[in-house]
Request: fold
Amino acid sequence: MLYEKFGLVNTTKMFAQAMAHRYAVGAFNFYNMETLVAISSAARDMRSPIILAVSESALEYMGDDMLMAMITGLKLSPHEQIALHLDHGHSFESCAHALDIGFSSVMIDASTLSFDENLALSARVAKYAHAHGATVEAELGIIGGHEDENTHATNQIYTNQNDAVEFIARTGIDSLAIAIGTTHGAYKRHSDFEQLRFDILREISYRLPGFPLVLHGASNIPRILVDTINENGGDINTARGIPTEQLRQAILMGICKINVDSDSRLAFTAGVRLEMSENPNEFNPRKYLGLGQSAVYENTIAEITNIMDSANRLR
Reply:
């Protein structure tokens, strides 16, 4: 498998261990050298398995050669349990391309298609990925919200547990993203009293014992990051995320992978805004990008520790 050349692993072992010990593996999106170094360094320092996630648009932004050169530069070892994952691939071609350049995991997101179309496309991607020793995630139901061109939906459809059983049996996928009330982007809830649909999660977990379940749109949106951005020229006052206690409950009920994108964006933006506000004469990119990198590192450490509970899990 090509991904082994980069010291990467697929998600099979990390998910099995996470489910056995009731923690989650964080899938942290990155967009450039600074965010990649911050996230991978946090995982290494915390001895945590991790998934480095790349969206279609982030891959286009960085370019194949630059992205894989940065992965090469990390000098990964399989015992570190780090996967490189395509987040929200929307076509067979997109997923196949990621696998062909060295990704160890892909997500095919055909959730807006009909059930039969989603099933057929997911099965096709799974067959191709498995031939490459890679793992596949699909999505059933629709997770609402808008983050960027990769993730946007005007409606939300909760995952049907009966459909989930059939879907997994007929596609051969390795993990399933479910819709239980999380939302893409920084504006996930209208009030602090909203609860995830734990009744749906409970039923799906019961019907699919031991099968890896995934939460998208589940960023915590730390208040300190929102306040730092707003106090230094930003305007995201109504941003509100999923509370830590709800994420921890979801993990105990069967979620073994939680995606983190908005939190890393907020952390990077907070670090850059704070530096440029406090030092308005600064024009050395290394200085303000470095503060952004440090903020992403600290946030990743916090989420590995307080939400995923995946620190010191490497065997």
User: Anything to note?
Assistant: Residues 2-308 form a domain with the TIM Barrel fold (CATH 3.20.20.70). The mean pLDDT is 93. The chain is about 45% helix and 15% strand. The first strand starts at residue 25 and ends at 29.
